[in-house]
Structure formats: C-alpha cells, structure tokens
Amino acid sequence: MNAPAAKPVAASSPHVMNTYARVPIALSHGQGCRVWDINGKEYLDALAGIAVNTLGHNHPKLVPALQEQVARLIHTSNYYHVPLQETLAKKLVELSGMKNVFFCNTGLEANEAVLKLARKYGHDKGIANPQVVVYERAFHGRSIATLSATGNEKIQKGFGPLVPGFIRVPLNDIEALKKATAHNPDVVAVFFETIQGEGGINPMRGDYLRAVRALCTERDWLLCIDEVQCGMGRTGKWFAHQWAGIVPDVVALAKGLGSGVPIGAVVAGPKAADIFQPGNHGTTFGGNPLAMRAGVETLRIMEEDGLLQRAEQMGRYLGERLHAALDSHPGVKEIRAQGLMIGVELAKPCGVLIGRAAEVGLLISVTADSVIRLLPPLIITQAEIDELLARLLPLVRDFLAEA
Ligand SMILES: *Cc1c(COP(=O)(O)O)cnc(C)c1O
User: What is the position in ligand 1's atom list of the atom closest to the CA of 109?
Assistant: First the structure.
C-alpha cells in the first residue's frame, strides 16, 4: 500500500491555538531514547519532553503497569481515599526527609500551592500582607501568580496587573537577600529553583543554599524550593538541593515524577505540613489513580535500575566531553552541568539550533536565548551520548563560525 516515493507528511495544526513556536515535525512513536516522526525519520531525544520522560519512551516496565492501571481505575475524585496517594506520598517523604504531600497536576499548580502555603503561613501568624522573596531569571509557571513570581519580563508582558507580594533578589548573594528583607516583618518565605531551568541552567551554590537555610530558620521563614525541573533524580540525587545537604520546608515537584503522565506534588516539612486544612486547597484531577501509579512505578523503576547513579555518571561523562570539545572555543561562554541537566551558554542567541538539530536527528532545546539545554532521559547510555555529541558538536562549531 505504501507509495514508493511518498511526499513527506507536513506537520500542521490550524485548529490549535497558536501558543508555541513549534519545530515543524510531528512525532509518532518512541522507544528508549529515540523517537520517530510521522515520516519515519528517527531522532535521538535529548529533551525528554523538557525533563519529563525520565524513563524515555515505551519503557518495558512502565507501560504494562500503566495499561493495568487504566483498565482498573483512571480517576475517582478526592471525595474518597486514593490508596496510591498514600503509597506515593510515603515514598516522597522517605526520599526527601520531609513530612507530607499534596498532589496536583502540573508544575505551576504545585507552585501555586507553594505560594498559598506561604501566604497562609503568614496569615496564621498574624501577617496580613505576606511577602515572598523570589529571584531574578526565575521561572515558576504561567498562571497569574506564578508568572508574577517569575523573573522574566517577556513572560509577564501583557498580563498585568501582576500579583503583588514578591520581593526580587539576585542569585547567590546572601547580603543582597539580607538587605532586601531588612526590617521587613512581612516576609514569610524564600522561593527559588535549586538550578534555574528556563532561566538558563543557573545553579544556586551550596554555600548559598546553606546560608539561606540558616537565615530562614533564624527568621522563621519557609524555605520553599521549586524542583519541578531539577528534581526527581535528574542531577543524580533525588532532589538537587540534597547536594547541599539541606532540608527545605516546602518542595514543588512535577515534570519527571510521572514519566509523562501529568502530575505535580508539593512536599512539606513539619513547619508547613499542617497549614492547609479541609477547604483551603484542592484540585479535581490531583492525585488520581493513573497519575499516582505513574509516580509509584517511576520511582520503583528508578530505584531498581539505579537511575540516580546513571544520571550522575552519564551526566559527568557528557559534561566532560562537552568541556573537552568546547572549552577553548571563544564563542562558548560557559558549560553548566549537574547530572543530566546541562546548559552550554554561547556568546550569541542560538534558538536557530533547535531546528538545525532536528534536521540532523537530535531533539534539544535552547533557553534564555543563548543556552543550549540538554535534558535527556535518565536511561541514556554512553553510546547514545557519543551519538548525541556526534550530532550536536558539528552544528555548534558551524554555528559559531558564522558571522
Ligand atoms: C516547567 C516548570 C514549571 C511549570 O511547570 P508546568 O507543568 O509547565 O506548569 C515551573 N517551575 C519550573 C522550575 C519549571 O521548569
């Protein structure tokens, strides 16, 4: 039936609202770290659906479990107990050293809940106008509150008035944080990404994280961390802040937690665990059996298959190779890598590389205009990394050689 020289099928979606500048390909199926488009062209996936597909595609342990769950129960509502919520919450509590969990569906929703927790924490203490410290270049989502917390005017433009109650500070500068909050009794929380994702793969330093932890304890503020992108094993520990040896009061999770099934979670320590009471917060889909099963199985498979260790080892290998290939290049400003969360900052905007990489069979992203971002599935092998580099490096060199 196949026509011998079939014309490639064009990717288009005229009835879908035009909210994304899309690469002109449409994907059909995947296996491991590879995906194929509707014309049969193969791509190596170094994006993983933006740090979502932890286990790659069509994982042999995940798929049968989800099939079984779909046939059993997809959704029930939070009118009733959902036993899988307790299973996943208990596991997240063990892995984080914290106390309890609220489940939702996305990253921004987790962050909304964090902001509500922080505000109510203040109100419960008699603070009528609670203020939350947020950071330059942060990204927390695109709802009105989370875009107000985001440190990017492009994302905020056109959507004012912004939600008030935020104090913005630079990264890794404890004196600036102290100065911005001096004599301000309304501060209730500090909120940041351990490694900024959309902002360009910008890490908070360990000494800074420990200093902020100490300050939050001293001032009775909640230390709230958005690990939506850098969490769930991507850096080689369950949570990126664990590299600094700190335990926060609140952590937001989403992307990698469900291997592609929409899921979000807010993990709370003792200071924040009892702030929400019945009626304060909720969501229809949050914690539904399908999403919970996806989370439970993702964590189980990650442990069984040693994926934290793999993320660390493969991330180190990929980082070393990038350094060796690009460090001496004048067009490369900096390479920032922690596990499989990697940014290569170039000296000029490089969004055009997304399409060029797709042409040579590689899925990548570019953030903050000039940072090539690599977020491959945590199952990636050394051979696949070699392939990734073989496809990426010539593109980068050619691009930098252009006037
Ligand atoms: C992606 C992301 C979000 C938003 O998550 P959505 O699921 O797109 O709402 C929030 N914070 C960080 C750090 C992210 O990377």
Answer: 9
Active-site annotation holds for 285: no
Is-above-0.90 flag for pTM? yes
Among the listed residues 226, 237, 239, 271, the single catalytic one is: 226
End-to-end CA distance of the chain: 48
SS3 87: helix
**Ligand 1: nearest atom to the Cα of 51:** 15
Residue 104 has pLDDT above 60, yes or no: yes
Structure confidence at residue 276 (pLDDT):
98
Active-site option among 192, 239, 249, 255 = 255
Q: Which helix (H) or strand (E) holds 265?
A: strand 264-268
- Tally Cβ neighbours within 10 Å of residue 270: 11
Give ∠ CA 140-141-147 in degrees, rounded to 5: 85
3-class SS of residue 161 = coil
Ligand 1 centroid to residue 39 C-alpha, Å: 31
Catalytic site includes residue 139 = yes
- Radius of gyration over every alpha carbon of the chain, rounded to an integer in angstroms: 21
From 103, 139, 239, 276, active-site residue: 139
| Beta bridge partner(s), residue 189 | 132, 222
Q: CA nearest 229: which of 250, 248, 203, 209? A: 203
CA distance 323 to 328: 8
**pLDDT tens string 289-342:** 999 999 999 999 999 999 999 999 999 999 999 999 999 999 999 999 999 999
- Catalytic residue check, 226: yes
For the CA of 254, the closest atom of ligand 1 is: 7
The Å distance, Cα 13 to ligand 1 centre, comes to: 24
* Helix H or strand E segment including 148: helix 144-149
